[in-house]
Amino acid sequence: MATYKILIIDDEPGIREGTKRILQNFKVDYPFMDEQIDFQVLEAGTGKSGIEIIDSELPEILLLDNKLPDIQGVEVLEYVKNKHYDIVVVMITSYASLELAVKATRDGAFDFIPKPFTPQEIRASVENITKQIFLKRMTQSLNNTGKQIRFQFLSVLSHELKAPLNAIDGYLKMIKERQFGNNIDAYDEMLDRSMERIKGMRQLILDLLDLTKIETGKPTQKLEKVNIRKIVQMSVDTIRPYAIQKDVDIYVNSREACEMKADPGEIEIIMNNLISNAVKYNKVGGRVDIFIEKKESLLRLTVSDTGIGLNKEDKEKIFEDFVRIKSFQTREVTGSGLGLSIVKKIVDMYQGSIDVQSEPGSGTSFIITLLEPEA
Amino acid sequence: MKKKILIVDDDMDYLFQMRMKVEQMGFETITAESQAETEKIIMEIKPDLCILDLMMESDDSGFILSYKIKRKYPDVPVIIATGVTAETGMTFDVHAEENARWINADLFLDKGIRADQLHREIKKLLKL
Known about the structure:
The complex is a heterodimer of chains A (375) and B (128).
Chain A: E1 2-9, H1 13-24, E2 27-28, E3 37-44, H2 47-57, E4 61-65, H3 73-82, E5 88-94, H4 98-106, E6 111-115, H5 119-145, H6 147-176, H7 184-215, E7 224-227, H8 228-245, E8 249-252, E9 259-262, H9 264-280, E10 287-295, E11 298-305, H10 312-317, H11 339-349, E12 353-359, E13 363-371
Chain B: E1 4-8, H1 12-24, E2 28-32, H2 35-44, E3 49-53, H3 61-72, E4 78-82, H4 97-103, E5 107-110, H5 115-126
Parallel strand pairs in B: 1-2, 1-3, 3-4, 4-5
Helix pairs in contact in B: 2-3
């Protein structure tokens, strides 16, 4: 069981006693909470002694009367705010000074309870605040452990998986309902689009598998002496049929084998992604040039295309998960938005770097540098 | 005269299907595939109703468009259609007063909505 500290600052001993009694055996639970939360009530009769307790005990919740014998309640509120303490402040105030309470809420008090209050009112307010604090802390701890990122990733992923399903579902319904009568050509087009979306979805799943492999990290990395030239050629062969369709020529401009210690699977993922992008976002009749260079322990892979290019803002975004550059020229290109983020993750594993040089309209070059792992 | 409905979505398939649905209901349609394109269109044309996708160039394109459309044409109803539902965990609390005030959309719909339900909602908003 967790215990939250509540400090009540009020000059009337009756109010302090009453509040203490009301909250003594009060417990809050919430569907997401593993445990109940109860309360330890601290009390102070003046603003200054209250501040001392705030400094030493750091309560979670502060119930604050404005009319105190020494300083004003709002001054205590200001103190809490200036110190950036993570304390939820509730003003307790008589009806006559409601205006002040409203002002205090604007200045950072969470809520106010008018005096005289019923036990029910104070419990409701404390319960509400407790849930807020609990949720806030849970979000913080999620953030800290990176779960938030994972959560966001999964949310976007499910969106990306649902979009093609919805599209295919929609077309199938239209076909089933014979919405275009006997106009067979119209149905053909819908079937083509459905197949295109299935292709996109398949690619997304393959990319996800790659990503999972990388995220499980080094343990699965199989380092061996690799003939980089050979892997590049394999990638080129894989993508060639697609390139022929798009009338794009691919040239490998290096003769040497360029041997390096690496995981062949990872190098292949990098090359597959870069070369297929270079074809996908190329112009009809365009070309892709690949250069491989090795200098001591540094390997440099360059993939240049004569495609649509990237502008400055796009260049900064392309390595994030699920980012796809949307424009009139890319509207019919399918992709998962994961390819380059995968490339980036692998490059990071080799303590490498990626340089992107691009001119909108005339082409893009990706220059990847990898450091050969030691031992 | 047929009512003009502006449909915005960056998924060309969804856009096509939505357009078909809406045209079968007897409305005229205008379509756009991005926030930027939509902003240009609304400078010139006043639609009778708008159906907007939420996530386009940015995660909140639909919200921004809704805000801009309402500022220019306060009387034009705006529907935001989204595939981002509670099950994915990415909910925007549109009913939270603070959000609702600036987004200003009249209705939020799940993208999987059936044609007849959609038709009913459109008629309600157009007061037909």
